[in-house]
Amino acid sequence: MKFFKALFGSKEEKPEEKKKAEEAKNFDVLKYDGVRALRAGQAEFAIRCFTHALQMQDDLEIHDYLSQAYIRTGELTLAYEQLQKLAEAQPDNQQIFIRMANVAYMMEDYGAMAGACEKAMLIDDKTAEVMYLYARACIGQEDVTNAVAMLTKAISLKEDYGDAYLLRGETLLKNGDTDEADEDATWLIEHTEDNEDVMMLKARIERAKGNTDAAIDYYTKVTDANPFNIDAYRERGELRLATGDEKGGNEDIEHAKELTAQLPENNDEEGIENKVKEKYKSMDPYGVF
């Protein structure tokens, strides 16, 4: 037997090599089981797979997947920590800082959000999305002037940036600049079709201008587009009451209360998931997410 082993170069696998091969196999199984679970919406199982895999071997791709899984479960601080590890490993990757800004926004940590945007701008200051996110951070810090400036820059970099027009219009309206807000609303109406967020902005602008009938018409367009929009029913109800339409106004306000009662509690799993989705939606009102 020894003669044949020597002749053909055959050798037994060393215990250390066998152990490494087994660990590599287990690592791959955990990694791809985690990916499959994440894609199937089984975030908690995915987290267990990824966490165990990282105990065996550090891997940037798994840190990325793990951050996504933590976002799905609403564990945003843990998601941010994973993205920080990615940023340390790839400091010139702007997309990592963009994702950090998004997670910081969901955490309502506007200082961290601004910091992530500033680092992203150092890599490339011509990215419209970064300007938009920076504006979000400014709004969170009640810095309206810089928010409008960042949104204007975002639009200059991307002329059809509908999200930026919408956010700038909403920001201008809150600041009392109804005429400038109306310019953004008009652009959006001309370039979108039956978008409830655009119609909501226009309704509120008309209400602020004192154009009650026009405001009610736009609120009605909102409820036609989305019959579950609580704010539209409540605000239309308030206007109807102000015009003397007690029946219509009370019906709207009562319906708004009924819809509110159907919302999930903020402390349950569904409530956390919905909160995360709402945060994404507010950054992406055209429904890409």
UniProtKB/TrEMBL annotation:
Q: Which UniProt keywords apply?
A: Repeat, TPR repeat
What is this protein identified as?
A: Tetratricopeptide repeat protein
What SUPFAM superfamilies does this protein map onto? TPR-like (SSF48452)
SMART domains this protein is in? TPR (SM00028)
| Keyword hit for Repeat | yes
InterPro entries from the entry? CellSynth/LPSAsmb/PSIAsmb, TPR-like_helical_dom_sf, TPR_rpt
Q: Does the keyword Repeat apply?
A: yes
| Species of origin | Xylanibacter rarus
What residue spans do the TPR repeats cover? 60-93
